[in-house]
Each structure stands twice: as structure tokens, then as C-alpha cells.
Amino acid sequence: MVTLSDILAAVAVVLNGLPQGLLALTFGFAAFPTAIAFVIGIIGVIFFKLVTPISFQAETICLAGTLGRDRLERLNMVFWSGIIMAVIGILGLLEFTIDMIGPSILNGMMAGVGIMLAHVAINMIKSNKTIGAFSLAVALLTYFITDNLVYTIVASVFLSSFVWMYMKRTELSKKEVEASEDIEKISRIKVLVNPFIIRGALALATLQIGGNIAYGSITGNLAQSSVNIDHLTIYSGLASAGSALFGGGPVEAIISGTAIAPNPFITGILMMAIMAIILLSKLLPKLAKYVPSESIAGFLFVLGAIIVFPTNINLGLAGDPVVAGVTTVVTAATDPFLGMLAGLIVRAVIGL
Fold it and tell me: Were 343 and a residue from 27, 105, 122, 284 both cysteine, which residue would form a disulfide, CB within 3.0 to 4.6 Å?
């Protein structure tokens, strides 16, 4: 039986995901077809009987948005990365892949992604100094007071949006909103394959491997339930591929507050159902009229510079400082896949 606590937990996770959904809109991913991902997520959770829902994830959105040179490239990168992840999950290769990479390289990649997130945040602040700086100030203040990322994203996004609505909106902002509304439909994209897209897809898959292991395990532990990461990888990969094929954004495993609800399995399904309804009703693009993309800059900076980077760089350096350091730097300068290759090469050379 669904309790009030279950409903509140589901709504809280939805509120946490909406600003990241708005971030996806700024990179050209459509909200309406992304509902496909959440429907696939519901089917996957029910079929495999897991407590690990999927949703928007800032790291993946930023990486896909910055790797692709245009919307079609980004969508193809997300599509093929989803296919890669689904195949890895079907073949049961995730644990083998993690063992091959090793903790120093994995943590180095995540640390490099932290730098990338902070860099995206800084660029957002530069593009809209008033809103970006206000978002950063609120995010830092909220996080250091509460030590809670949910409060941080809600406070920084909504307060900076109120400031933005008070200010006069620019013509550029209006054009961006109109452009996002034009793509809110189910339309099959042109599937492309070229070296640039393959590299981007591998980079996204590399990042998601680490995310699925970390976030899936944490959510499972919170819910006191065992989680088969390969099964999670199957439906999260198919969800991203299905979404991107029709113009939607990437989704993946998250650290979900639904895990602490009295009924984590049902609550996870409820959360994804609510998110699908919001996307199908086209409320997210309408919300974008009142929420500037720069409003998430503060959260991205906190996530990247204060959460993701310090945690992972400490773990990576504790294992193998040289390998972790090279992996982090190359990842931050290029992408996680090249960072992983650099780390593997350095580890092999050191081992000679």
C-alpha cells in the first residue's frame, strides 16, 4: 500500500530531477520524447524487480552537451552509448569492465568529470553574470548550511529564477525558449555513425559505467535491497537509446531518495511515472520560460567542485597517484573514454 511518505519521497526526487531536465533542454534535448525513457525505466524496474529508478543526471547531460557539436551529434552519441550500455548489461560484462579499469582509473575519470561540471558552471556564469553569480552564491550558502544537495538545487534554481523573472528578459533568452518548443514532438532522428560520434558514445558509456556501479549500489544499500548492476544497465541503456532515437535526452541511474521510502520499489515506479506525465504534458518546456538555464550554475559548481572532484580524487590518489592524476587531467581536458585509455597506458608503462 502506498503511504504518504512514499508519495512525498517520489515528489522530492522529481523536484530534484526537473532542474536537470531543464539543463537538458539547453543542449537541445527535447522533453516530450524523453518520457519514453521513463516508461522503459518503469518496465525495467518491474521486470527485474529492482529498487533503482532512473532519471536525469547532470554529469551525463553536460558531457553529451559539450561533446556534440550540434543537436544531431549529441542525440546520436546518447543513442549509441545507450546501445553499448544495454549490450554490456545483457552480456554481464559490467563487473568485468570495472575490474579491468581498476579503482584509481575509475575514480580519476569521475574526478575529471567533476572538473568538467565546474567548467560548465563557470561558463554559464560568464554568459549571464547576474543570474549565474546569484545562483552560485545561493548554492554555496545553502550547501554549507544544510549539507544537502536537494536543498541546494531547489534553493539556487528557484531563487535565481525569481530574480530573473524580476529582471527584464533578453531577446536571446526568448529565442532559446521558442527553439526548445519547436522540437517538443516524437520525431525519429537520422541515425549516424562516424568516428567523432563513436568516440562520444564511448565517453558517455565510460562515464555511465561508473555511475551505474556507484549510484545503483548506493540506492540499493539505502533501500536494504540487493541490486544486479547488469540488469540496471540493461534498462537504463535501453531507456537512453529509446529517448535519443526520437529526440529526447539521456537518463541513467541516480542516488534516489525513493530508496529511503517505506516501499522503495513502488516509490521508484511512482517517481518515474510522475516524471513521464510531466514530460508528456509538455510542462517542462513551459517551465523553461520562467527558469533560465544559468539558474543551475550554482548547483553544477557545488556538484563538480565540492562533491564529485574532491571525493573521487582522494580515492584515486590513495590507490595510484600517477595513474589517477593522468586519468583526471586527460578526462577533464578531453572526455572520460580518452581519460580511461590514458590511465590504462600509464599503468601498463609503470608495470613494465
Answer: 105
Q: What are the grid coordinates assigned to 42, written together? A: 518503469
* CA–CA distance, 352 with 330 (Å, rounded to integer): 22
User: What CA–CA distances, in Å, run from 210 to 46, 54, 141, 251, 259?
Assistant: 23, 15, 29, 14, 20
Report how far residue 325's alpha carbon sits from residue 92's, in angstroms, rounded to the nearest whole number.
29
Neighbours of 96 (CB within 10 A): 11
Q: Rounded distance, CA 44 to CA 48, Å?
A: 6
Q: Give me the pLDDT at residue 209, please.
A: 85
Contacts of 250 (CB under 8 A, 6+ apart): 24, 29, 56, 57, 60, 61, 64, 78, 81, 82, 204, 240, 243, 244
pLDDT at 172: 45
Res 177: pLDDT: 44
pLDDT for the residue 222: 75
State the angle between helix axes of 321-333 and 309-319 in degrees (0 to 180), rounded to the nearest 10: 140
CA distance 242 to 238: 6
28 φ/ψ sector (left φ>0, alpha ψ -120 to 50, else beta): left
Q: At what angle do helices 94-101 and 195-222 cross, to 10 degrees?
A: 100
**How many other C-beta atoms lie within 10 A of the C-beta of residue 99?**
9
Q: Which residue has the cell 537541445?
A: 28
Mark residue 170 as left, alpha or beta (left: phi above 0; alpha: psi -120 to 50; beta: remaining). Answer: beta
d(CA 118, CA 148): 18
pTM tops 0.85: no
Distance CA 244, CA 249 (A): 6
The stretches in the chain having pLDDT less than 50 are: 171-179
- The residue type found at 16 is N
At residue 73's C-alpha, the angle toward residues 175 and 116, to 5°, is 80
